[in-house]
């Protein structure tokens, strides 16, 4: 199935997505925001970030997972689909530096009670991982694919936003990239992914502790979670911050599940790691924080005057990084 707006995340993007599809989706989102958002005295941060921030520090976000677009039951068990959907929503709270407080889980599914229960168990398990209960939700029969919508509520005193990166800031990424994309690539080719790649897809990492610490200690100037691929999400951060992000491909922490394919780290998506910027003076403390949390934190580039994402490729050449479509990005030895 093809997402008519161009896939936001998930399986079709690796094979079918085009820049045109991305632009179409972006323009539609802009129109929907223009229709829905009127400004508010109680909403301090509205559309355009990983979550909305209310006066008092509550952070709200929601994430939709659609069967055939974001997950498939011949790839993942229902519990895993539920877990993944909730983990994706919680990842947005981590990107905002917010500690999760509760989830709301809405399901639209064929009249299959066992399936719904399995989905809900997966959502609950993702909530348990961060200490947040499923505090409500909704249920509807669906004549079509299964739809999982997870809304999350968290709290922070100092939200991390996409728009705070300044020239000279370092660019950091958590964890390792490309593993989940490796699983999607294998499934799409009719193969069984490696155990590592599969686990990266069905059980995205929890970066709550990292996001909360970056917020609490005032270390990061901007942050976003990597749901749509490093270059695409980096482009969002660059645009909101009004800087260029120069990313050094040689420094990207490649997940073993990516099978050595750098394009999966750049554009595979589904990683749910955090991309953040921080002043050079914070580098030592960030490295120490990574050791304390046992989360790899890698400096992968620098914010500069300019716009968009610039890739320092493996030959050391600067190339503008289009927000999508890195399937043909190859290591120097692979080039013909
Ligand atoms: Mg996000």
Placed side by side, the strands forming the largest sheet appear as 8-10-7-11-9-12-13
List ligands, each type once: magnesium ion
Question: Helix- and strand-based class?
Answer: alpha+beta
Portion of residues in beta strands equals 15-25%
Low-confidence stretches: 1-20, 325-336
Nearest-integer average pLDDT = 89
Number of strands: 13
Commentary on this structure:
The chain has 10 helices and 13 strands. It has helices at residues 11-16, 19-36, 78-95, 113-130, 179-188, 195-202, 208-216, 230-241, 262-267, 283-293, and strands at 43-45, 52-54, 58-66, 99-109, 134-141, 147-155, 170-174, 222-226, 244-248, 273-278, 297-304, 309-312, 318-320. It has a 7-stranded mixed beta sheet with strand order 8-10-7-11-9-12-13. A 6-stranded mixed beta sheet has the order 1-2-3-6-4-5. Strand 12 and strand 13 form a beta hairpin. It is globular. The two termini are 34 Å apart. Residues 1-20 and 325-336 have low confidence and may be disordered. The structure holds magnesium ion.
């Amino acid at each position: 199935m093809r997402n008519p707006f161009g896939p936001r995340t998930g399986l079709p993007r690796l094979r079918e997505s085009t820049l045109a599809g991305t632009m179409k989706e972006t323009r539609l989102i802009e129109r929907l925001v223009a229709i829905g958002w009127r400004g508010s005295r109680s909403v301090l941060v509205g559309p355009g970030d990983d979550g909305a921030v209310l006066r008092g520090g509550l952070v709200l976000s929601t994430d939709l997972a659609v069967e055939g677009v974001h997950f498939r039951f011949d790839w993942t068990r229902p519990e895993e689909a539920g877990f993944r959907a909730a983990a994706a929503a919680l990842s947005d709270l981590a990107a905002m530096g917010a500690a999760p407080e509760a989830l709301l889980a809405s399901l639209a599914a064929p009249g299959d009670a066992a399936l719904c229960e399995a989905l809900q168990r997966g959502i609950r398990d993702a909530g348990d991982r961060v200490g947040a209960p499923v505090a409500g939700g909704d249920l509807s029969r669906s004549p079509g694919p299964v739809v999982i919508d997870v809304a999350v509520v968290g709290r922070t005193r100092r939200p991390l936003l996409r728009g705070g990166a300044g020239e000279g800031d370092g660019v950091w990424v958590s964890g390792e990239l490309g593993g989940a994309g490796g699983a999607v690539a294998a499934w799409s080719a009719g193969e069984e992914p490696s155990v590592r790649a599969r686990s990266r897809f069905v059980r995205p990492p929890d970066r709550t502790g990292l996001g909360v610490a970056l917020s609490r200690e005032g270390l990061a100037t901007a942050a976003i979670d990597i749901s749509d691929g490093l270059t695409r999400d980096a482009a969002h951060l660059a645009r909101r911050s009004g800087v260029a992000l120069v990313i050094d491909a040689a420094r990207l922490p490649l997940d073993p599940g990516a099978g050595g394919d750098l394009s999966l780290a750049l554009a595979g998506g589904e990683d749910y790691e955090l991309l953040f910027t921080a002043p050079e003076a914070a580098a030592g403390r960030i490295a120490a924080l990574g050791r304390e949390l046992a989360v790899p934190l890698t400096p992968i580039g620098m914010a500069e005057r300019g716009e968009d994402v610039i890739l320092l490729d493996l030959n050391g050449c600067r190339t503008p990084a289009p927000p999508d479509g890195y399937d043909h990005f190859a290591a120097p030895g692979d080039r013909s």
